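Sanity check record (used in CI):
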Amino acid sequence: MNANPLTAWLRSNEMWVPAADKATACSHVFLDGGKANVPPLRTPDFLKTYADCVRRDVPQFCVERLAQGEAFRFFMDLDLSKEVEARIGQDLLREVLATTADLLDGNGSVTVCGKWNTGRSAWSALRAVRQQLASILDTSVYRGSGLRMLGSRKRGGWDVYMPTRAVGPAGEQHEPAPAAVLADLERWLERCSLNPAKPDARALLRNLA
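Expected output for Smr domain-containing protein:
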């Protein structure tokens, strides 16, 4: 019997997809086995159930996949060695965030995610992008593999993937406290989702009535 409440919730709502099923489209993959197909309108319910599990310290291994044929948020997955990470300082992080702010033109925000237990963000080595982007950029995330969701870990690992820095449209930065992130995890999950939330058509119709 699976003790993961999220798996039980997905099954009860007919969103669970067995790992052996290669034909059914899926929105999420679980590194410990299985997949899920969560309709966009049920995403808020899914995120609430997922966040409750993370807050209760139920290990999660969930990867969000790109919605095929849909617009997605700009993101990068950089695989850095500890040596490279240690060699590059926070001034380089500021440099790349400033560049990203120029791309956003003041109309968006940036969230830096990394491992809570290391106290270091993968984005802290972004200067390396200039010289060795091809060697550190994991391009498989654009071909369907997706990214781990906040609060999830790799199978067999204890590193929890969480936001380590938030940058606003004007370049203002802050490091969110773990307790604050957990308390408001649903908002962080939506903010860091690869797939922008779709408007609820039913709510729009209610507003027009």
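The mean pLDDT is 76. If this sentence no longer matches the regenerated tokens, the check is flagged for review.
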